[in-house]
Amino acid sequence: MKKTKFLMIAMLGVTLATVSCKKDDPTTGPNPDPTVSPSAQALGSFFANNTNNEKQQFTIDATSPGSITGSKGTVINFSSNSFETQSGVVATGSVDIELIEIFSKSEMILLNKPTMANHPSGGLAPLISGGQFKITASQNGEELNLRNGFNYLVTVPAPNGVDPAMDIFYGNNDTDTVIWDQADSALIWGQGNEYNAYFDSLDWINLDYFMNQGGQQTTIQVEVPQGFNNQNCALFISFDGLNSLAMLYNATNNVFTSAPFYTLPVGMDVHFVALSLINNEPHVAIVQTQITNNHYEVIQQLNQTTDSQFATDLSNLP
Predict the structure, then answer these.
(1) Any idea where the domains of the chain sit in the sequence?
(2) Cα–Cα distance between 193 and 195 in angstroms, integer?
(3) pLDDT band at 175; cut points 50, 70, 90
(4) Separation of alpha carbons 218 and 206, rounded Å
């Protein structure tokens, strides 16, 4: 059964810039133009709109086995009589299924869904993802629950082959950043270029495993220009060569830190990605670097771009 404990950190992020340097003592960046300011509301709307654009709609018969196939290749098979109303009545008739599929780091950033999980030993740790999904069922506008004791079979594409360490993690239905929790029990297997898994929960689900974080660990700090904070700016850490995305949650004024939530291995190659909305236009910075001990990154500015160019830049992350 799914874990019920979730850690949600209500924040929308951090910022990044195209010019960076490292130094021992924090200093503030240049003052922003006083005629414009980053908007927390616009940033939240940016993530919400991208999420809505990824929603796929299907209809199945509640009393018969039903199968749906997402546009990115996810196949979901439901058993008959799997759903019940909020009052516990077994659903009959047509059921509306909504699906979101997230497979790439660019999609994780655009939808604000980093792969950070509660670690069994405490704190947070990054996950390596084999796919994130939001699966919901409703009838006449009322959300349905999966009946106790029922599950459903999901087949997930694995174009780069399967990893035997892959496991199942659950999120929740909050619109803020999801922190993932490992399932209490899970049945997942893979062969060839696909995973098969049984899910016993609806809503946000992630195929993941914890990143191997051996070696010397360090906290991360990133300084952004004055006026940006973790409400109006999102700051992500993309791990080069891995389908994994961290986020910096904690901030004092315009300096963000991974403390006290997590540390990262010294020597990792990463890209910092900062995003903010000013006058409803995306302003971003993408900085390539390698994590050093007591890492301190200075992002001096965020540059205006377009939605399409930002998406292209994200798709080129290694």
Answers:
(1) 20-48+215-315, 50-210
(2) 7
(3) low
(4) 27
